[in-house]
Design a protein that fits this description.
The structure holds two protein chains of two kinds. In chain A, helix 2 links the parallel strand 1 and strand 2. By secondary structure, chain A is α/β, with parallel strands linked by helices. In chain A, 37% of the residues lie in helices and 18% in strands. In chain A, the strands form two sheets. Chain A has a seven-stranded mixed β-sheet with strand order 2-1-3-4-6-5-10, sandwiched between helices. Chain A has a five-stranded mixed β-sheet with strand order 7-9-8-11-12, with helices on both faces. Chain A folds into two domains: 2-171, Rossmann fold; 191-318, Rossmann fold, CATH 3.40.50. In chain A, helix 8 (207-220) packs across helix 12. By secondary structure, chain B is an alpha/beta fold. Chain B has helices at 33-55, 69-76, 92-98, 102-110, 119-122, 133-147, 174-185, 205-208, 213-220, 232-247, 277-284, 288-296, 305-329, 348-364, and strands at residues 84-86, 162-167, 190-196, 199-200, 203-204, 224-228, 253-258. In chain B, strand 2 (162-167), helix 7 (174-185) and strand 3 form a beta-alpha-beta unit. In chain B, helix 1 crosses helix 3 and helix 2 packs parallel to helix 10. The longest helix of chain B is centred in the C-terminal third of the chain and has 25 residues, at 305-329. Chain B starts with 32 loop residues before the first helix and ends in a 5-residue tail after the last helix. Classes of the chains: A alpha/beta, B alpha/beta. At the A-B interface, helix 3, helix 4 and helix 5 of A face helix 6, helix 7 and helix 14 of B. Chain B: Keywords: Oxidoreductase, Thiamine pyrophosphate. Chain B: GO terms for molecular function: branched-chain 2-oxo acid dehydrogenase activity; magnesium ion binding. Chain B: Belongs to the BCKDHA family. Chain B: Residues 38-297 form the Dehydrogenase E1 component domain.
């Protein structure tokens, strides 16, 4: 997936001279995950800016660049380091289009590697998506495949809205074909990645392949689970989820982020409001717990995994 | 270690006596003192009327700039049309100099809008209430100016500078210090104009800094200039030089205009809980408008001075009337307006929320409450 993102950035830099990348260590080093590898050499220091170390500065200056007509793509080095930029993101970036009554849009993309499962130290495995999804004026995207990473990143950069682009870091090394010419799914649409009729299993990012494994196990037992990849966490495509639940009657939602106030709770509320009489079982969530992200020796059991998903699916199917 | 306190540079003293100094632009470059006086008087009237409108319940709040007109008109009159301004929320006289309709300043404080004007019309961005946040926007904008090639060409119609305003309180914000660092290492065409008005609500300058604000610039690696903020001629000279350095590729400057906020922080503040009326009176005696008036009308005054002042008085009254009428005529927003422009295209779920809200507002309240 890292290569797909690199190709996506390259394509946008070639297509639009106003695209500027800005972030810590993204020049010579190519970023700590090498997503910007080789771009500085091919597009100059002016367009691939190794920034001073300061996340508020990265986002704040990206806002100014956007006001001057540029399309900045920020890289925040790790999920846990985005918080110094939260003031700029929530009070400035998210509101300016509205405050200017639609006159000025800020086409800023903020790329953030997110999530755990790579044995990292503190602050390097967080899932901060709910903070952003809770903020009106932002789009929040999270791809799960290389093709989606390529497509969604291009759509995010071309879009006039500010976009928080969450890259599931344990998927950086997952392999997948990318066809730049393939027709892209709309960026605010969820996608059914495995059809089924027994239960709807909704997730996003690094948990999509985990959900597919769980669905494969259940299929061997004769139960066809429909897996939905949300892709866009704000706005949420609840139409696709509700349509699925109307057919299956059961819903399990999974995310790495802690439970309270998460995307899962929001989706559950929407589904029960719109499809209450189609539900055969309570909506269940499989999530990270309401604790600080654990020391990495504990993360394998702390993170939602195939077994925890299977348990939740079994519980739902028993109703 | 503390730096030696630097006396703010001044050429026009509180009695209206002008000292000859090479740094004051002369000839065709000289500040038009009559125009500057007019700008200070009329922008002060905007401030005075806005306070009155708040007292009458027409505005929810107003942050007065009384006493800071010298700093603001000095800086504002040094702008060229292609320069870009990032204000705080107190730059009413700079907005005046940039040509923003003062009626449009009132909307934010009347509760009819969260913005009020098109920032592109006058290159004057929206007021920023979160302290220091705009300094980084100025830095980013200046990065864009560099990439556009609009610095150091020598073409006065092309070269641009970015002018960011901040107060003494903002010096303590991390974002301001990031902005200084970024502007320095990239040698950006930005001028940070700090009006040190001595008070961040109730916190005196000594809470923010052990050294004069201008002293900090050297640690970041660019010039810092300390100027008498109540001397419009000195402020103009300093701002002009800094903006010209920025446009020509010479990089950033921090200007510290030492002035005084003579009114409470806003109409909701009670400044006598943290400072004395005697100090306020002391600063009133150093008023920027009075000292320029003393210079212009010194002795018998030049021919025509009485006509000029009479015309200005009439202009003030017309402006005040226009503000009062304009304030009351500001359009009340529609209940559907909060839903607009959050994203480029309204998401389906937000459409549902809007429809629900509009149905409620249209009379769905019923008779149960």
């Amino acid at each position: 997936m890292a290569h797909a993102l690199n190709a996506g950035l390259r394509a946008c830099l070639e297509e639009d001279p106003k695209v500027v990348l800005i972030g810590e260590d993204i020049g010579r080093l190519g970023g700590v995950f090498r997503v910007t590898d080789g771009l500085r050499e091919d597009f100059s220091d002016e367009r691939v800016v190794t920034s001073p170390l300061g996340e508020a500065g990265i986002v704040g200056s990206a806002i100014g660049l956007a006001m001057a007509g540029y399309r900045p793509v920020c890289e925040i080095q790790f999920d846990g380091f985005v918080f110094p930029a939260m003031n700029q993101i929530t009070t400035q970036l998210a509101k300016y289009r509205h405050r200017s009554e639609g006159r000025i849009s800020l086409p800023v993309v903020i790329r953030i590697p997110v999530g755990g499962g790579i044995g990292a130290i503190e602050h390097h495995s967080e899932s901060p998506e709910a903070y952003f999804a809770h903020t009106p004026g932002l789009r929040v995207l999270c791809p799960s495949t290389s093709q989606d990473a390529y497509d969604l990143l291009g759509q995010a950069i071309r879009c006039d809205d500010p976009v928080i682009f969450l890259e599931p870091k344990r998927s950086y090394w997952s392999k997948g074909e990318v066809d730049p010419e393939a027709p892209a799914v709309g960026m605010d649409r969820a996608r059914v990645v495995r059809p089924g009729d027994a239960l709807t299993l909704v997730t996003y990012g690094a948990l999509v392949p985990v959900a597919l494994k769980a669905a494969a196990v259940l299929a061997e037992e004769g139960r066809q689970v429909e897996v939905v990849d949300l892709r866009s966490l704000s706005p949420i495509d609840d139409d696709t989820v509700v349509e699925s639940v109307r057919r299956t009657g059961r819903l399990v939602i999974a995310h790495e982020a802690s439970q309270t106030g998460g995307i899962g709770g929001e989706l559950a509320a929407r589904v029960q409001a719109r499809a209450f009489y189609d539900l055969e079982a309570p909506v269940l969530r499989v999530t990270g717990y309401d604790t600080p992200y654990p020391a990495s020796r504990l993360e394998e059991d702390w993170l939602p995994n195939v077994d925890r998903l299977l348990e939740a699916c079994d519980a739902s199917l028993k109703h | 270690m503390t730096a030696e306190p630097t006396e703010p540079w001044s050429v026009l003293d509180p009695t209206g006596t002008l000292r000859v100094d090479d740094r004051v632009p002369a000839g065709a470059d000289a500040l038009d003192l009559w125009a500057a006086y007019r700008d200070m008087v009329l922008s002060r009237r905007v401030d005075t009327e806005a306070i009155a409108l708040q007292r009458q319940g027409e505005l929810g709040l107003w942050p007065s700039m009384l006493g800071q007109e010298g700093a603001q008109v000095g800086a504002g009159s040094a702008l060229r049309p292609r320069d870009v301004v990032f204000p705080t929320y107190r730059e009413h006289a700079v907005a005046w100099c940039a040509g923003v309709d003062p009626v449009q300043l009132l909307g934010l404080f009347r509760g009819t809008t969260l913005g009020g004007w098109d920032p592109r019309d006058r290159n004057f961005h929206l007021y920023t209430l979160v302290i220091g946040a705009q300094t980084l926007h100025a830095v980013g904008y200046a990065m864009g100016v560099v990439r556009d090639g609009d610095v150091g060409t020598g073409d006065p119609d092309r070269d641009r500078a970015v002018l960011a305003f901040l107060g003494d309180g903002a010096l303590s914000e991390g974002e301001t210090n990031e902005a200084f660092a970024w502007a320095a290492v990239q040698n950006l065409p930005v001028v940070f104009f700090c009006q040190n008005n001595q008070w961040a609500i109730s916190a005196p300058f000594s809470v923010q800094s052990r050294v004069p604000a201008a002293t900090r610039a050297s640690g970041f690696g660019f010039p810092g200039v300390r100027v008498d903020g109540n001397d419009v001629i000195a402020c103009h000279a300093v701002a002009r030089e800094a903006l010209e350095r920025a446009r020509s590729g010479g990089g950033p400057t921090l200007v510290e205009a030492v002035t005084y906020r003579r009114n409470p922080h806003t109409t909701s503040d009670d400044d006598l809980r943290y400072r004395t009326g005697a100090v306020n009176d002391d600063w009133a005696a150093r008023d920027p408008v009075d000292r320029l008036r003393a210079l212009l009308t010194g002795g018998a005054g030049p021919p025509g001075v009485n006509d000029f002042l009479a015309d200005l008085g009439r202009e003030e009254e017309e402006l005040a009337e226009r503000l009062r009428a304009g304030c009351r005529a500001l359009p009340v927003p529609h209940p559907g307006d909060p839903f607009l422009h959050t994203l480029e295209r309204m998401p389906r779920d937000l459409e549902r929320q809007r429809d629900e809200h509009l149905a409620f507002v249209a009379g769905g309240q019923g008779d149960r409450s």
